[in-house]
Amino acid sequence: MKIVYTVIVMLIMLFMITFSLENTSDVTLQYLHYRIAMQTYMLLFVTFLAGVIFAGFMGIVERFRLTRTINKLNKTIREVRRDLRANDTPSIIEDSQHRNLTETDP
Questions:
Q1: Which helix H or strand E contains 57, and what residues bound it?
Q2: What tens digit of pLDDT does each residue of 11-56 get?
Q3: Are the beta carbons of 6 and 14 closer than 8 angstroms?
Q4: I need a surface site. Which of 34, 48, 77, 95 has the fewest CB within 10 A?
């Protein structure tokens, strides 16, 4: 498995190097009064990196939300179990009360 992982990483790196060498023309970005000139491959890599960072941030936010939901549900489960134990009378008490009632009936 480690060999497969190494081969995949090497292929991705080879792709990145050849892509960078083939796309060296300059691109000018303009927004309002700001102008930035950079190479095409750099623009694509920066955009990709920004997307990865944004997706990672959204994943962290989602994980915190799910953790909070899990904690709330666990609290609800504990409360329901506590209520069930409080309302459930032990069978020993029920049996002894039942014996006392049957002994005093005749």
A1: helix 40-87
A2: 998 988 888 888 888 888 888 889 989 888 888 889 999 999 999 9
A3: no
A4: 34
Answer yes or no: pTM beyond 0.70.
no
User: Across the chain, which distance is largest between two alpha carbons, in Å?
Assistant: 106
**What is the residue type of 98?**
H
Structure-token pair, residue 72: 């709330």
pLDDT tens-digit readout, 44-79: 889 999 999 999 999 999 999 999 999 999 999 999
- Would you state the structure tokens that stand for residue 92, as one six-digit string? 């020993």
26-to-16, 19, 40, 51, 64 alpha-carbon distances in Å: 18, 14, 6, 22, 41
